[in-house]
Amino acid sequence: MLEQARKLLQQYYGYSAFRNGQEQAIQSVLSGNDTLTVMPTGGGKSICYQIPALVFEGTTIVISPLISLMKDQVDALLQVGIPAAYINSSITAAESRERIQKAKQGEYKLLYIAPERLESYDFMEHLKELDIPLLAVDEAHCISQWGHDFRPSYQRIQRMVQVLPQKPIVIALTATATPRVRYDICESLNIDENNTVLTGFERENLSFSVIRGQDRLRYLKDFLKKNEKEAGIIYAATRKNVDQLYEHLQKSGIAVSRYHAGMSDVERMEQQEEFLQDRTAVMVATSAFGMGIDKSNIRYVIHYQLTKNMESYYQEAGRAGRDGLPSECILLYSSQDVQVQRFLIDQSSEQHRMSSELEKLQQMVDYCHTESCLQSKIVHYFSEAESPPCGRCGNCTDSRETMDVTREAQIVLSCIVRMGQKRFGKTIIAQVLTASRNKKVFELGFERLPTYGMLKDQSAKDVTDLIEFLISQELIAVDHGTFPTLYVKEKGREVLVGKETVYRKEAVRTKQV
Ligand code: ADP
Ligand code: ZN
């Protein structure tokens, strides 16, 4: 059967070999096992269910959360001659009935449906009349409350499987591999955890870097000037940011497109086409851009602001270098953006999800402050695996001296202990350490602490940076109560008592203000 799969790969897709993980996933499904496939974005998940769909008799059902993605996938399949269709809220009831009829007659190899369909009694009754050998659950992390995109209707999938007259084989696919999410997927869909196909999360052609403490607009313009022949995406946090950047770059004579949800459909399509067909080199966009976009020659992805979590970051950054050639993923960090993200989480999240989202944001901030390999940090985040330094990222290639900062770290840690664990945030802690004359500091009597002013030769900003660094090293942790407060972790205690040493790259200090 694997031989047949390989022929189909060549025949329909024109590829001569499976990628890492694809063969294993296909083999597992063809042998009749329910399977979880975890691959990074761009890893080639679609083929893992599309090829088995071609091998099996009947219609494979694909559950997919994004309407735009469904259409793209179906268009791509039709183009290579694989009969497929989708049913979601973008089509009329009459069209939907027609497609169901055709599905019953076995006219499609693949039928994409939105998870919300499973809430319709009528639709479920229709499904029972189909011959369904395989059920593919795309973006399966939507099942988990711990994922970054929880969808309640995903939790109905298992019930659907149970009411079908013939139990289909189930393949779940996601790019999120945290053990908790993996566990939830397997639990919810009744997949044996041993049937997990997990490929490496490294993308060997990508080099990651984080730029801190620089004029972002100037950095961006310099970068674009040096790379004017290359295609790239610049992600900004809000529509307003996108519009501003777009205008700035256009004025500087750069051929640029833009994309965000505030534009009309027509305008968005036009701008997207311009970029896809290489008429413009640069796309400035919000996170609304990129799903289902298959442009292989993207040489860089720059984030003008940090994202709300690592999942979004890796998904967006991962759009660079799909053709396998060296590409750059750059994040421009500014601490104010963390406040903006925190505010957005406050505004939009349900109460019970808030702390998990703030925790994810903190991990993103840690990524921005770590001095170890960024690629390894990402791999560890997604799979808890250890990997050797990549040798390519901004941190691996950072040639600054490494300094022993144990003494400074001890001062910070001891100041936190003295001010009270889980009571204060980093701003006031930095103020105390730099001998601020702020009213609140005096009201609380902190000017009498022995650590008051012990780092006063540094600016409050430098000390805040140092605190962020110590958080990224897991010496200090953030408690997300009504507002974020700090406390010293076990590893921090070891530093305090002199059992552990702390190293940091020679600081690039901002001027005392
Ligand atoms: P994902 O869903 O994991 O993000 P896709 O399924 O969209 O990834 O695949 C990403 C890209 O890789 C697509 O352009 C696809 O055609 C290509 N691709 C997938 N499998 C192979 C393969 N075996 N050989 C070469 N290219 C592949
Ligand atoms: Zn590295």
From TrEMBL:
GO CC terms, sorted: bacterial nucleoid; cytoplasm; replisome
Helicase C-terminal domain segment(s): 219-362
Keyword ATP-binding attributed: yes
Coiled-coil blocks: none
Names of the cofactor(s): Mg(2+); Zn(2+)
The enzyme's E.C. designation: 5.6.2.4
Sorted UniProt keywords: ATP-binding, DNA damage, DNA recombination, DNA repair, DNA-binding, Helicase, Hydrolase, Isomerase, Metal-binding, Nucleotide-binding, Zinc
Reactions mediated catalytically: Couples ATP hydrolysis with the unwinding of duplex DNA by translocating in the 3'-5' direction
GO biological process terms, semicolon-separated: DNA recombination; DNA repair; DNA replication; SOS response
Keyword Nucleotide-binding belongs to the record: yes
Residue span(s) of domain Helicase ATP-binding: 26-195
Enzyme class of the recorded protein, top EC level: isomerase
GO MF terms, alphabetically ordered: 3'-5' DNA helicase activity; ATP binding; DNA binding; four-way junction helicase activity; hydrolase activity; metal ion binding
Signal peptide: none
The family this protein is said to belong to: Belongs to the helicase family. RecQ subfamily.
Name this polypeptide is given: DNA helicase RecQ
Organism this protein belongs to: Fictibacillus aquaticus
Gene name in the database record: recQ
Segment of the intact protein contained: 1 to 513 of 710
